[in-house]
């Protein structure tokens, strides 16, 4: 099969999965098998594009012209392939996790969940391989619309309220800012195609480019830059597999990936460095990192603490892209990968705790390590990855981001990154440490007798969920030792 057909197959597989899931909705074993087979097939297909692209082969696909010079078309480039590899692999793991979670938690409308999940991954493939901003925008909006029913999956008033915030902010920013930025880019450059080094001519007004950069940064609401971040905590009313989709597999990663791609292939590093607005947008990203870390520290609900942690970590990726240095871009791209594995593990653990122990608050997790040792060990590993210290892959991305601030001589931002890392230690590490080394509230009230050890009985989440979080936690460590596959893609793209 030609590489062009392989590229188009990456867009077709999720659609076929949706059809298969809906046709077999009554038979959960068949339906879930179709989801796993489709996810595995997609990942295999994406891997087949890796070596041809590194060998210099141009891989593209054209669908149709909308206007002269404006086409719905696709092309494989290094950063897009990196994003597609991460998303397609994590679709397999999240599906495995969701099988255990959805059954264990007795969730309704499971066929709809798996079907919309497949559509979301299809939208991610479209974003990853978009040849131009128009194509990217179409799939960006599809991703918003198909994840809205997932956010409101529970059907409660709280879920619908969270869904309204989710949809309102993401559609509002994309139509109000992102679409305007795309139209302005078309008028200024005469093209929307991504191009190495950027698409603007040297004589383009830097003031106009400053306004345009601001429109892009605020318009890509999925990157959750403050003050357009509230949709992310609001969406935590969704089931945990949806939270994993939002934070690690698709939505927020699509946002920061889009910003990274725009900075690199629409503006270009040289132009980005010359734009006056880059400086204050850098500090906005830095403030977002710091404020979100402080807010995370104050959250007692586990999923909300992880949500604000995500807002902070997305700021790292935005900051790295706006530094407009080789090290900053490398750190930004690497952090998309490292954060994906770390944060999906944390949400998997949060869901496992809910299903097995029915706990949602941080203070309830004391002593839980005795009941759920595998889950809390995975939580510890993932926390280290988010913080950015060995033995996890987050070490690499945080190192390059710090190096990027050094290259750009942004000493204040370097300090902000250090402070944020200390805050992330404060809001993440105590959770697994207290789970293992503190007694639970129930244990503390027991004075003796046969009930004294009742809470120490091991009761982990369903096996599929446990396997999934074990794989992603192992991935956090694996990426410290073997980051080369992603590093080569990033260096080829930068």
Automatic annotation (TrEMBL):
GO terms for cellular component: plasma membrane. InterPro entries: CPA3_Na-H_Antiporter_D, ND/Mrp_TM, Proton_antipo_N. The chain crosses the membrane at residues 33-50, 80-99, 111-130, 136-153, 165-188, 208-232, 244-268, 280-297, 306-324, 336-356, 409-429, 466-490. It is found in: Cell membrane; Membrane. Residues 70-114 form the NADH-Ubiquinone oxidoreductase (complex I) chain 5 N-terminal domain. Belongs to the CPA3 antiporters (TC 2.A.63) subunit D family. PANTHER family: NA(+)_H(+) ANTIPORTER SUBUNIT D1, NADH DEHYDROGENASE. This is Cation:proton antiporter. It comes from Microbulbifer agarilyticus.
